[in-house]
Amino acid sequence: MEYRKPQWVLLLGGAVLWLVLCRVPSVANTWNLRVLLSSGIITAYTWAAAYEFWRGRSEPLVSRWPVIFMLFAHGSLYLLRTPFGAMLPWSPVGNEVFDSVWMTVLSFEALLFTISIAFILLAMAKERTEHRHKTMALVDPLTGIANRRAFLDGAADLLARQEADREPLAMMLFDLDHFKQINDRFGHAVGDAVLQTFAGTATATLGADVLFARIGGEEFASCVPVGDLDEAFAIADRVRRNFAAAAARFGADELLPTVSGGVTLGCDPRARVLDLLSIVDRALYRAKENGRNRVEMETPKEQAMMPSAPSIVPIIEVNRGAIGASAPKRWRAAS
Fold first, then answer.
1. Per the confidence metrics, is the pTM higher than 0.90?
2. Which position has the higher pLDDT, 97 or 242?
3. Strand, helix or coil at 131?
4. What's the Cα-to-Cα distance from 146 to each of 7, 102, 226, rounded to whole Å?
């Protein structure tokens, strides 16, 4: 949930408004008016709390919705306090407000609300902690992208679905060139900046919805639906060139990070992710042997090409060393 600084004017505004209006004789001498005023202030703060929970709905918590409903209902009941209090009969004991039927109903509802909201908020805190732990287990803390575990699970799901989608999957493997030398010469802080730059550039090039992960120290992998191996090569090479342009911001001739890549194609839904990674690793090794800062392809022996399909991955244009997204285009012209 997004953290925001407290707005003290709004937090204290209700109390200040109550104190000021209670100095007005017409309000101070009218019981129903004071009840209506206090009920309105309580309702406003209760609905504001419900709105704050609703604002954070992007965080997938099931317990959020009962809290929103209870806060909204509790505020609505307070808002109806004055008209209902005027219509409900008073007890025969006397005309004191604490003897009214409405006060009994309101007190009982407040008791139930207090107990229920406490239990639900505890459940929400537990659910949020579990969700954060689960998310942290699937996200690389340095780059903010998926980690090896998330990649293996996601790639397995994509492979299982490709028979229905009838779209080959490109398995791409990237490895930063001479990364150990960068760490040794410039320090780990610079090395971390290089890793973050590559992760950001590759994510912008591939698209936020594409499976892309850091699976090792300076190794990254991606699994992308494509039409054929040539299209997969074009995507990987675009990542390489965009990173070379983004790395120019380091502004030192002795520090010009580059990346090598390997690409293969998986068309068999029965294929295993580790098998494809082993195949693409051979292509990556060949790219390193052939001089680095390049992409090589590897074709599995048993591969049978499926009907071509255009990719949904956008092209990122490089302008004056900066990365900027052009209008969405396809990597391959539709046939």
1. no
2. 242
3. helix
4. 35, 56, 21
